[in-house]
Amino acid sequence: MKLARSTVVAPVPGSEKLLMVQPLTGQVALWEGEDARRVAAVDRGAELPACLPLVDMREAGFAVSSDEEEADLRSAAYAEYVEEVLRTPTQLIVVPSFGCNLKCTYCYQEVFDPTGGGLIAADTIDALFRYVDRFHGEDDPRPYLTLFGGEPLRDTPTHKDRVERILARARARGIGVAVVTNGYDLEAYVPLLSAGGIREVQVTLDGPEPVQDLRRPHASGAGTFQRAERGVDQLLRNGVPVNLRVVADRDNLPSLPALARVAQEHGWLDLPGSLFKTQVGRNYELFGCASGQRRDQLYDRVELWADYVALAEKDPVLRKFHSPRFHGIRHLADTGEFPVANFDACPAAKKEWAFAPDGGLYGCTATVGNPAYRLGTYAPEVVRDETAIGRWRERSVFTIEKCKDCSVAAVCGGGCGAIAANRTGDIRGADCRPVAELFGIGARFYGLG
Question: Which of 34, 235, 358, 449 is a plausible cystine mate for 240, CB 3.0–4.6 Å?
Fold first, then answer.
């Protein structure tokens, strides 16, 4: 009997325990003592010591008798993954304008043309929804639309007109809408967003007022925290769900407990998760380093979450503020079950499409507006580069060479195609994730080990 190649063995920091995860079967076990040391000494695919509980390990999928047996596990997991994908709605990302009223220090769109076709025209919105009717009109489940930018919520009559048109057409088709905004002009849009059909509004606050105002100032140099803070309060009072996002690096991570206390004072952290949630994302280079961004302040994934956990252990308010996913460990802690295996982490041109204000068609949030990744047009006429689209659609752990023999492929899913393409020059390059290390950190954070 040998250790399955897809079994992930994750040391739990600060202990001698091991977390063992088999993503193909959803089984998880915690090992300690001599058995933990024996498991840690075995390479994937190597024979296991007879003194281990091999029958139980085989039943859970941690151990297999042959490569064929593991291939059967993979086939069964893939079938379950496909069913999950079919239940997942497609996200349609609409950019009314690439212009922005803020001057964030780390904006990845800094290298893009800020005009990008200017503000989306009324007839382009009409063309957009003709495209949606043609290519997504029969989607089940129904797709949802996300307003993105630049900054989609600008307090001008023409911006409001365009947003109103988009919301009305989406509502008429039973399409829910999410909004990604910096929050500066959010108050002006509260009545419109409170009229129904809004899935959530994502607002970015990178820390308490001094930190936010330094990292995400208005183009005039004015502060932005108080305006966004008031906007969040008003949305929540009107029952509009808010997703509070933090873009984290070494500069602002130490200030997160202070931001958490602000959220606590407002009562946000006592609201149900259906109304208020948080998201902490890593500040990283996508298409290069922004002019105000320092590479030495950027975290890798393991460093970020190790520091986050250490900070939360010192200041428990951070635990109430945000619960990291850790590639499924949060789901395990909440439900007792490990999520379905992930054979493709890149939704581009599959479960995600993006629409630029000039009529350009793109595959995802990360690439929209970058001419190197344009996949065609939706206006004034529909032109699709099916060859380019096909390259995105065929990307998965089965076509990424580096993923084929990787033990964590069914969790990592090959990562982000845009990052892989930018770094390797090939969409089918790998954007590797440190899954085992994050499993271990997650086990510590949630007290599993």
Answer: 235
Same domain for 310 and 182: yes
User: Which of 261, 289, 322 marks a domain boundary?
Assistant: 322
C-alpha span between 316 and 261 (Å, rounded) = 11
Q: Taking the complete model, does pTM exceed 0.70, yes or no?
A: yes
pLDDT string in tens for the chain (449-residue length): 999 999 999 999 999 999 999 999 999 999 999 999 999 999 878 899 999 999 999 999 999 999 999 999 999 999 999 999 999 999 999 999 999 999 998 887 656 655 555 999 999 999 999 999 999 999 999 999 999 999 999 999 999 999 999 999 999 999 999 999 999 999 999 999 999 999 999 999 999 999 999 999 999 999 999 999 999 999 999 999 999 999 999 999 999 999 999 999 999 999 999 999 999 999 876 655 566 667 788 999 999 999 999 999 999 999 999 999 999 999 999 999 999 999 999 999 999 999 999 999 999 999 999 999 999 999 999 999 999 999 999 999 999 999 999 999 999 999 999 999 988 999 999 999 999 999 999 999 999 96
Q: Residues 310, 254: contact at Cβ < 8 Å?
A: no
CB atoms < 10 A from the CB of 247, how many?
A: 20
| Cα–Cα nearest to 5, from 49, 79, 68 | 68
205 and 125 in one domain? yes
The enclosing H or E element of 27 equals strand 27-31
